[in-house]
Amino acid sequence: MSSHLLSVDSLSRDDVDHLMRVAARMEPIAQRRKVTRVLEGAVLGNLFFEASTRTRVSFHAAFCRLGGSVCDTTGFTFSSMAKGESLYDTSRVMSGYCDAIVMRHPEQGSVAEFAKATKVPVINGGDGPGEHPSQALLDLYTIDKEFARRGKTLAGAHVLLTGDLKYGRTVHSLIKLLSLYAPMGLTLVSPPGLEMPRHLIDLVASRGHRVETRESLASDFADVDVVYTTRIQKERFTAEMSEGFSLSRDYTVDKAFLDGRCNDHTIVMHPLPRDSRPEANDLDVDLNGDPRLAIFRQTDNGIPVRMAIFATLLQVEDLVEQDLRDVRWFVPATVGVDDARD
């Protein structure tokens, strides 16, 4: 694994497997059963120049769970970039303050440019419509855990990716990550104009995977193991695309779709946030409480995975277990009111 995490492209299959193993070892800490201070004294720079709640807080919490502290910057308004400072200058300055940096930026390629100015580990927290490597890693970790409970493996799996496949950076990273594993089936469904970039389809196909595109969800998906859906990224639309755009129910993942076209064991995932407004036709709230809905298990998994990323980049992954102790505060048996116990 390189000194930064900017793209899934920098990860080999061995790198990914290592991160998955380290994440599993982080579970007792992420689940608030154990405490470690292995990063005590280390400082994370959390630089988010684009709106974020889950990713920013997840990285923050993961670093704190390892015993580190965090400095946050959110939005251009509150940064020196509003005064014209370059990415290079910002990178060099922040590197003098921090031991690791997570950055989200609305422009594709900006995080890689930022990383050129420093040897401090930089993690891409999302660069416009580009990539979101840590999200893809936690998605893969979630799929692996969900499959393990059912005695399945990734080999031969059938994954449906639907929604905004053009601007949805999470699916760009995920499809490349899945392509590192044994051949599987990948079905792509998106509204017209929001298709998966051709170069990504060609990459996955070149690695021996079966890739199929369909026009809508109005067909049989009984053999699908995972439905991964994303909201429409209207904030990235051109003015021409925005004019008159609307999403029909043909692209909605809801209980009727899951019951009528999928199977009893199909896993439903979403990188969040989902657009819960009825007219959005995103992932429907009528699936709340359905055991097939894995979105909250998915977000929970972001903590051990991001802990594993920090521990690996800062080279303390083998020290964590030597530094564990029991928590001293009250921890509920489940986090959400409707969470099922495993």
Report the C-alpha radius of gyration, rounded: 20 Å
Shape: globular
| Helical coverage, percent range | 25-40%
Determine the strand fraction and express it as a percent band.
15-25%
The oligomeric state of the chains shown is single chain
Mean pLDDT: 90
Low-confidence stretches: none
Query: Which class of secondary structure composition applies to the elements?
Result: alpha/beta
Number of extended strands: 11
List the helices and strands and how they pair.
Blueprint: H1 13-30, E1 34-36, E2 43-48, H2 54-65, E3 69-74, H3 87-95, E4 100-105, H4 110-115, E5 122-127, H5 133-149, E6 158-162, H6 169-178, E7 185-189, H7 198-206, E8 210-214, E9 226-229, H8 239-242, H9 255-261, E10 267-269, H10 295-313, E11 324-326
Parallel strand pairs: 2-3, 2-4, 4-5, 6-7, 6-9, 7-8, 9-10
Antiparallel strand pairs: 1-11
What does this protein structure show overall?
It contains ten helices and eleven strands. It has 342 residues and is an alpha/beta fold. A five-stranded parallel β-sheet has the order 8-7-6-9-10, with helices on one face. Helix 2 crosses helix 10. The model has no long low-confidence stretch (mean pLDDT 90).
Q: Which properties best describe this structure?
A:
342 residues, alpha/beta, 5-stranded parallel sheet, 4-stranded parallel sheet, globular
Short structural description:
This protein is α/β, with parallel strands linked by helices and 342 residues long. Helix content is 32%, strand content 15%.
